[in-house]
Amino acid sequence: MLTETRPQTPPTPSQGTAGVGAPILPVGAWRGPRAVPQARTAPRVAAAVVAVLAALGVWLTWRLFVGTTAGQRVDELAFLGATHGQGRLWRVAEPVLDVVSVAFVVAGVGAAMLVALVRRRWVLALQVAVLVGGANVTTQVLKHGVLDRPELLPGWTGPNTLPSGHTTVAASVSVALLLVTPRAWRPVVAILGAAYTAATGVSTLVGQWHRPSDVVAALLVVLAWGAAVCAFTPASSTDEPRRPGGSYAAPASYVVAGLLLAASAVGVVVSGGTLVGLVTNGDPVPLSPDLTAYAAGALGVLAVTAAAFAALLVLRQLTAQPRRTSR
After folding, report:
1. Which of 31, 158, 210, 230 could form a disulfide with 204, with the two C-beta atoms 3.0–4.6 Å apart?
2. 166, 200 contact by CB (below 8 A)
3. How large is the C-alpha radius of gyration of the chain?
4. Span 271-320, pLDDT tens digits
5. Alpha carbons 284 and 276: distance in angstroms, whole number
6. At 222, phi and psi to the nearest 5?
7. 239 φ/ψ angles, rounded to the nearest 5 degrees
8. In this predicted model, what pLDDT tens digit does every residue of 32-76 receive, in sequence order?
């Protein structure tokens, strides 16, 4: 008895391979698993180097402006110079400082963690909480338990106040939001965070709560912690392109970072040159010594703030870009 045989045809990807009743695979599933993102090593190493340099910068700031007679003198001049125009400036500075509170820290950390969780960056949500907590604990331990203020000037200038707690709070919350924000929005968040942090730092000078070195040290503490978070960026915290196979290019980020660094360089040159002139009694200053030191100190705070946020913006963009992998 003859039986009819039919030619066998290979199944198509949408038909499955087990015959009738086999599950229908989605289109494209037969191509294999998707590529798993991997964090790049070089940017993370660079972030680790920045973290170490920032930590060293905290010690150098204390050593120069608190541990030497010349540093204390110029810092104290800036502190005394804050009395000029303080009445008018305090009306603006006081509301800025009033924002900093326990509720502000909780709200800021909560907002940053929420953004990270919505973006499904579970490890990053934990990291930014550690960043804010670690930076503020570090500031308090350094101020009250590690660093001291030797009596190098005539009279009593008070206990050690380096680093500034208010500036640490403002900067750490701003950096936490910068790190969790989607890639395209980071330049805007960096500018807003730098502006708010600088306003808080300068406001502490206006109110004579802190000296310029206190604010600079606080900024470096936060820079160290922020760079450390970037250095430990896991693959799960990297970015995804807007479209499959799309680019990770973020030209606006590097333009903003470049502008911030350029402004910082100008500020450092002008502020540093002015302070050196005060210490060495070189060229006569255009204003009284205390007012000149006050203005130079405020400019120095602005310069370091711009540099810190520029560095963290670049580090976050680089460490968040995954390494290209084949399927």
Report:
1. 210
2. yes
3. 27
4. 999 988 888 875 556 678 999 999 999 999 999 999 999 999 999 999 99
5. 12
6. -70, -40
7. -85, 165
8. 444 557 888 999 999 999 999 999 999 999 999 999 999 999 999
Q: How many other C-beta atoms can be found within 10 angstroms of the C-beta atom of residue 101?
A: 12
Cα distance between residue 190 and residue 174, in whole Å:
8
Whether the CB-CB separation of 77 and 278 falls below 8 Å is answered with yes
Contacts of 295 (CB under 8 A, 6+ apart): 81, 274, 287
Token couple for 20: 């009738």
Handedness of CA 228, 56, 174, 139 (dihedral sign): positive
DSSP-H helix ranges across 66-185: 69-81, 86-98, 102-118, 122-141, 165-180
Residue 323: strand pairing partners: 38
Q: Is 21 left (phi over 0), alpha (psi -120 to 50) or beta?
A: left
Q: How many CB atoms lie within 10 A of CB 130?
A: 14
Taking the mean position of all CA atoms in its chain, how far away is CA 206? 24
pTM of the predicted model over 0.70: yes
Task: Tell the burial category of 250 from Cβ atoms under 10 Å away from its Cβ (0-12, 13-18, 19+).
Answer: buried
| Cα–Cα dist 253/298, whole Å | 26
Q: Which residues of 278-313 are buried (b: 16+ CB within 10 A; e: fewer)?
A: bbeeeeebeeebbbbbbbbbbbbbbbbbbbbbbbbb
Query: What span, in angstroms and rounded, lies between the C-alpha atoms of 108 and 25?
Result: 44
Given a contact cutoff of 8 angstroms between Cβ atoms, the answer to whether 219 and 174 are in contact is no
Q: Which amino acid is at 173?
A: V
Task: Reply yes or no: is the peptide bond before residue 150 cis, omega within 30 of 0.
Answer: no
